[in-house]
């Protein structure tokens, strides 16, 4: 389970700069698609300029990458809410809907890959584990997604249920919860029918296909294509599986940017998925480079965008804590 650090660094330094630049560009395009999907999610709240949304996405990702427990979601909601003068609660609800859409999309990828290449899944996890984990994941996110759709489709029922519950609470607290509930329902407006839901899932595809492409670009630049029988399609399918599993696991609030967990999961999935044809040091270098592409450029851009808006992360977090504005 150990990694030869010197060999890992050697594999990293052999990467040509053009591949790193290409990977960064592709990743920022994926963030652009995230902003475009978010614009659709906010359609019942307010029409927001796409560039403003892109700024908010980058600022939120920057905060997630340097702060624990996915604080960036709150920062993102505060940034957009303050800039556009809209309810931060409604914005935060749309961000949470995004996360569920991402999880559903990744699970769809895993299911499709399992059907196309079951041997890859069994090599990576073992048949006994995958028959337990996969159904649990599908059930968990299926139930969450179902509740979300029901809440969006039947807002009056949800409001009535909340109203019935708040009757047993102190008046001040009950009124605050009822006030928040109206903002929550407005934030769910974009998924109140299956047509809108289908559009959002379609918009989620380019987001993740582009991130998988980032993995493939780095894999190709590190001469990993040979381990996939020189087939770009096989490499794409394998790395789509790695991307999906890693992002589902990394979605659990933990260290800033999922540092540590991301590298470990990617490295071991690469090694196990290739029946040890890939050296662990090479896999470790691959994981390190990919994660660097996913977090360093957006940290830099997010900070620059904060400065351009005369804001700082410290100030935003301080204001949120003092005013409890979300």
Structure description:
The protein is mainly α. It is built from 14 helices and no strands. It has helices at residues 5-13, 17-41, 50-66, 72-84, 88-116, 118-125, 127-153, 155-166, 171-187, 194-221, 232-250, 261-273, 280-308, 313-323. The longest helix is centred in the first third of the chain and has 29 residues, at 88-116. The chain is globular.
Which features would summarize this protein structure in a list?
mainly alpha, 326 residues, globular
In short:
The chain is mostly helical and about 325 residues long.
Number of helices: 14
Number of strands: 0
Outline the biggest β-sheet: none
Question: What is the terminal separation in angstroms?
Answer: 43 Å
User: Overall pLDDT, averaged?
Assistant: 82
Main structural class: mainly alpha
In helices, the fraction of residues equals over 70%
Uncertain regions spanning at least 5 consecutive residues = none
The ordered string of helix (H) and strand (E) elements is: HHHHHHHHHHHHHH
- Radius of gyration, whole Å: 21 Å
Shape: globular
Question: What percentage of the residues does DSSP assign to strands (E)?
Answer: under 5%
What would you call the quaternary organization? single chain
Ordered list of secondary-structure elements with their pairings:
Elements: H1 5-13, H2 17-41, H3 50-66, H4 72-84, H5 88-116, H6 118-125, H7 127-153, H8 155-166, H9 171-187, H10 194-221, H11 232-250, H12 261-273, H13 280-308, H14 313-323
Helix pairs in contact: 1-13, 2-3, 2-10, 2-13, 3-4, 3-13, 4-5, 5-6, 5-7, 5-9, 5-10, 5-11, 6-7, 6-12, 8-9, 10-11, 10-13, 11-12, 12-13
């Amino acid at each position: 389970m150990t990694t030869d650090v010197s060999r890992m660094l050697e594999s990293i330094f052999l990467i040509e700069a053009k591949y790193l630049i290409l990977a960064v560009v592709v990743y920022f395009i994926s963030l652009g698609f995230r902003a475009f999907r978010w614009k659709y999610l906010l359609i019942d709240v307010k029409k927001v300029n796409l560039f403003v949304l892109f700024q908010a996405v980058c600022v939120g990702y920057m905060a997630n990458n340097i702060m624990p427990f996915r604080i960036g979601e709150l920062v993102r909601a505060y940034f957009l809410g303050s800039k556009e003068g809209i309810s931060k609660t409604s914005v935060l609800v749309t961000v949470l809907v995004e996360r569920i859409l991402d999880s559903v999309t990744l699970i769809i990828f895993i299911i499709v890959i399992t059907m196309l290449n079951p041997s890859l899944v069994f090599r990576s996890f073992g048949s006994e584990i995958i028959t337990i984990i996969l159904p649990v994941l599908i059930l968990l996110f299926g139930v969450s997604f179902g509740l979300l759709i029901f809440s969006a489709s039947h807002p009056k029922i949800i409001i009535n249920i909340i109203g019935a519950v708040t009757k047993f609470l102190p008046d001040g607290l009950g009124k605050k919860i009822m006030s928040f509930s109206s903002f929550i329902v407005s934030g769910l407006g974009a998924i109140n029918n299956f047509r809108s839901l289908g559009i959002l899932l379609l918009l989620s595809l380019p987001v993740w296909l582009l991130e998988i492409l980032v993995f493939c670009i780095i894999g190709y630049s590190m001469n990993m294509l040979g381990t996939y029988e020189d087939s770009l399609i096989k490499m794409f399918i394998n790395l789509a599986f790695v991307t999906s599993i890693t992002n589902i696991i990394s979605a659990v609030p933990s260290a800033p940017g999922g540092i540590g967990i991301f590298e470990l999961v990617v490295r071991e999935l690469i090694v196990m998925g290739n029946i040890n044809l890939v050296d662990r040091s090479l896999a470790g270098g691959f994981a390190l480079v990919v994660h660097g592409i996913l977090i360093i450029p957006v940290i830099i851009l997010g900070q620059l965008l904060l400065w351009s808006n005369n804001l700082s992360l410290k100030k935003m977090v301080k204001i949120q804590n003092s005013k409890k504005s979300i």
